[in-house]
Amino acid sequence: MRRREFVRLTAGAAMAWPLAARAQQKPMPVIGFLNSGSPNPPGLASPYMAAFGQGLKETGFVDGQNVAIEYRWAEGHYARLPALATDLVGRRVDLIAASGGDRSALAAKNATSTIPIVSVIGGDPVAEGLITSLARPGGNLTGVAFIDVELMPKRFELLSELVPRAGMIALLVNPNDANAERIISDVQEAARAKGRKLFVLKAGTEGEIDAAFASLVQLQAGGLVLGADPFFNSRRDQLVSLTSRDAVPAIYNLREYATAGGLISYGTSLGAVYRQVGISAGKILAGAKPAELPVEQPTKFELVINLKTARALGLTVPQSLLQRADEVIE
After folding, report:
1. 99 and 35 in contact (C-beta within 8 Å)?
2. Which of 16, 76, 83, 229 is found 20 to 30 A from 195 (Cα to Cα)?
3. SS3 of 309, please?
4. Tens digit of pLDDT for each residue in 6-20?
5. Are 266 and 151 spatial neighbours (Cβ–Cβ below 8 Å)?
6. Is 201 in a helix, a strand, or coil?
7. Containing H/E element for 194?
8. CA dist., res. 43 & res. 38, Å (int)
9. For residue range 278-316, what is the model confidence (pLDDT) as tens digits?
10. Strands 117-121 and 95-99
């Protein structure tokens, strides 16, 4: 073989090798992030997205570097979730992270039986048919059981302790939430145990929230228990503003309400939950099977009291509550 021909052949092989190597490279995995809420108002969802990203990072995945994330927001309209989940399945994402209430998990589960799903679950995932058991989910879905709905009776008890003279306490629920009836039943039982009257108000839109508070004022309720619901979380500022305007002592499920001016909150750290969802997602992208990845459960619940708001409402917070609080906002 002539030297010129040899050089031409080896040069051709050298050029072909990078092309072949690139062709064999695995494409960047894509996570479809499905949420019933909204990324707005600015700053409301960003801490949770950051926590989700932190969880991914702890397992070796960074958005934009070795994983991509496509977001789908239902903007508080739960009826949109099935179509959004179907869209993600059609785009052949590698994993769906479903959050913002159990309806997101149900929509994702109904849309696919093969794509792995990591979900934030507020109710009972076994009773809802999402998984077989917490230890071994058994299908394509795993995640974090938020333990939010189960805490509703405890929130009623805490508010009753804070406003012992309140003859009637109201409960606000979103009728579109999958857990609405269970929340009503559980809080009614807690009210009977305390010998208190309970009035149930329902709101599934911004306008219905305003109407519910108009009824609340007419009823002269001595307190308000806010139902655990992602739509309410997206309307946090509106709810806190209305309870302040109408001077209604209220208890919420997330500390973010208390830090925004709400009176008292009791529940799981949502940031910790989203971080764990990110960790579970990263494990699955690395090869773990959702059927064998246990559904995690939080072990710590935060009691946060806003003393500034209590003083504005003319309330004296019992020492028994202050001593149990994880955080007191002066």
Report:
1. yes
2. 229
3. helix
4. 444 444 544 444 544
5. yes
6. strand
7. helix 180-194
8. 11
9. 999 999 999 999 999 999 988 889 999 999 999 999 999
10. parallel
